[in-house]
Specification:
Layout (H helix, E strand, L loop, with lengths): L1 H4 L8 H13 L4 E7 L3 E8 L5 E3 L4 H8 L3 E3 L12 H4 L6 E8 L5 E9 L7 H22 L5 H16 L4 E7 L4 E4 L1 H7 L10 H4 L2 H17 L3 E8 L5 E12 L5 E10 L1 H20 L7 E5 L4 E4 L1 H7 L21 H14 L2 E10 L5 E13 L2 E10 L1 H15 L9 H8 L12 E8 L2 H8 L1 H18 L5 E6 L2 E7 L3 H12 L8 E7 L6 H17 L5 E3 L1
Parallel strand pairs: 20-21
Antiparallel strand pairs: 1-2, 1-6, 2-3, 4-5, 5-6, 7-8, 7-11, 9-10, 10-11, 12-13, 12-16, 14-15, 15-16, 17-19, 17-20, 18-19
Pfam family, one: GGDEF
Organism: Mycolicibacterium parafortuitum
Protein name: Diguanylate cyclase
Length: 561
């Protein structure tokens, strides 16, 4: 399809250059381009602020837009795995933002894209996304006109004029051109309406339509642009005929003739009043949020009968990890569910829709846009959204709460210094084993005491003593089996349960434990077999008595009772 348009590797054309400059202006971006995607490259037909002729198709904004068939908007390249290491991100021009709107033919072929680029992370406004879509259509219209170049010149000119009018007469954008004397030679309908001058604007100067001081300011600015040949970008307030004050972001640039001589000044002004108000509202909301953070609303996601996301509130946008609600509009809700549980989640969603049921406090897993997973709790209710039957999900991230509960449970059963089980946790794990103890399934309990620990602690200090306990606990824990139960009993004493091990076999294992004491220190161990009918306390007392027997033999000994 692209070959039939005969556009690749052609000379620059003002009609395309005008559209890229307009794209940069309306999107408040320093760089814009029109790129056509070939088999392995993106050929740049027109670039504004970009000095490239082509780039590799792989990992280009245009290439991804052509693949996806929809607007691609990367809010921050540093946070996007596809672009974080890209040469144009890590090096000049140090891109942090990019957006690309695909150029799609009437029969569905995706042939290229209109791109805007920036050196700062950001997001497009809804209006700017509409402008990009309009500009992509105008690029396609230009291509179609080129392919019909054999038509009579007059008809071609009329079609070009209609196309240009479609671009220029957008109600939110003011477009004009002045000659070197400051006379308006072109002004779109929006500018004619704002100045309340109508078609009389053409041929007039700023002095005919504005107060003298304003007109003089405009004229000085025009002369500066023509002299320096540099574009200027600024914000200004414009009073509309109804008396309302609007904020415009304006771009003015020099116009040149075929000989390269300056022939006037052009300008594009975009009404950013709503954007400015939104930014102010956002700042105010941010202050309220700081004061009311504990009362923030839970994320809400509405899913239609096709399983697509029909609505997501700002809290939901943050939970899903996307830049804006538009990024997930009509996207399958299952895209945010791990594949391993999609069938179960889809069944629950279908059942809720079919039965008008209500789901309360259901646990699930959410997969965010970046691939990370969160444990969530949600309520689901059937609602009418935009007149359509849908499921409203109220979602709450409980990952931190669950992790905190697990950490609390762990700390309640763990000795904080050594990281092994504490006394109560050891009791809780060993007690259930007593009922199954028999001759065929014995249980040995050993009490371990580090020899002369008090002297070591007093001589070398508590820090050295703590380190000795930690090193021993780590080495001993690594030397036992998975089913063995090891804990710190208190002070320098530890306790060990060896399920399925009689005292005779336990001796070999306990000698390994003795070898685990670091820093040239030793330990004594007393051990015994559990007797059916005895309590756990009785068994531990017997092992403790064996320990004292070991110590009485000169320490670094084993003793059994």
């Amino acid at each position: 399809m692209l070959g039939s348009l005969e556009i690749l590797d052609t000379e620059p054309e003002e009609s395309f250059d005008g559209l890229t400059e307009l794209a940069a202006a309306v999107c408040d971006a320093p760089m814009a381009l029109i790129g056509f995607v070939d088999a392995d490259r993106v050929w740049i037909k027109s670039g504004h602020g970009v000095g490239l002729s082509d780039v590799a198709r792989e990992m280009s904004f245009c290439g991804i837009a052509v693949e996806d068939g929809a607007l691609v908007e990367i809010a921050d390249t540093h946070a996007d795995a596809r672009f974080a290491g890209h040469p144009m991100v890590t090096g000049a021009p140090h891109l942090r933002f990019g957006a690309a709107m695909p150029i799609v033919t009437a029969d569905g072929h995706r042939i290229g894209a209109v791109c805007v680029l920036d050196r700062r992370p950001r997001a497009l406004t809804d209006a700017q996304r509409r402008y990009l879509r309009t500009l992509a259509r105008q690029v396609l219209a230009l291509l179609e006109l080129r392919s019909r170049a054999n038509e009579p010149d007059s008809e071609l000119a009329r079609q070009q004029q209609r196309m240009l009018s479609g671009v220029l007469d957008h109600p939110d954008v003011l477009v004009f051109a002045k000659d070197v004397d400051g006379r308006f030679v072109m002004a779109n309908r929006a500018l004619q309406d704002v100045t309340n001058a109508g078609r009389s604007l053409i041929g007039g100067t700023d002095f005919d339509f504005f107060e003298k001081d304003i007109a003089e300011h405009y004229r000085r600015n025009d002369r500066q642009i023509m002299t320096t040949r540099e574009r200027q970008v600024f914000s200004e307030e414009v009073v509309h005929p109804d008396g309302s004050v609007h904020i415009y972001r304006s771009t003015k640039f020099p116009l040149t003739d075929e000989a390269g001589e300056v022939s006037g000044v052009g300008g594009v002004s975009t009404d950013v009043t709503e954007l400015a108000a939104a930014r102010a509202a956002h700042a105010a909301a941010e202050e309220r949020w700081r004061a009311l953070v504990e009362q923030s609303q839970d994320p809400v996601v509405v899913v239609d009968t096709e399983g697509r996301i029909a609505y997501v509130n700002p809290a939901g946008v943050a939970l899903l990890g996307v830049a804006s609600a538009e990024d997930v509009a009509l996207v399958s809700a299952m895209d945010f569910v791990p594949e391993r549980i999609r069938s179960v989640t889809q069944a629950l969603l279908d059942e809720t829709l079919s039965t008008t049921g209500i789901v309360r406090s259901q646990r699930g897993v959410l997969r965010r846009h970046d691939g990370t997973e969160l444990l969530v709790e949600f309520n689901a209710t059937v609602v009418k959204h935009s007149g359509e039957r849908s499921v409203q999900l109220e979602v709450r991230d409980v990952s931190e709460a669950v992790a905190a509960h697990a950490a609390l449970k762990h700390s309640a059963s763990t000795d904080p210094l050594t990281g092994v089980l504490n006394r109560s946790a050891w009791d809780a794990q060993v007690t259930p084993l007593l009922a199954s103890v028999s001759e065929a399934s014995p249980l040995t309990v050993a009490v371990i005491d580090l020899d002369n620990f008090k002297g070591y602690n007093d001589t070398r200090g508590h820090t050295a003593g703590d380190l000795l306990l930690q090193q021993f606990a780590g080495a001993a824990g690594a030397s036992i089996r998975q089913q063995d139960i090891f804990a710190r009993w208190g002070g320098e004493e530890f306790i060990l349960a060896l399920p399925g091990t009689d005292p005779q076999r336990a001796q070999t294992m306990l000698n390994r434990i003795r070898a685990c004491v670091p820093f040239g220190q030793t330990c004594s161990i007393g051990y015994t077999g559990h007797r059916p009918g005895d309590t756990l306390t009785e068994t531990v007392v017997r092992a403790d008595k064996a320990l004292y027997e070991a110590k009485s033999r000169g320490r670094d000994q084993l003793a059994r009772r």
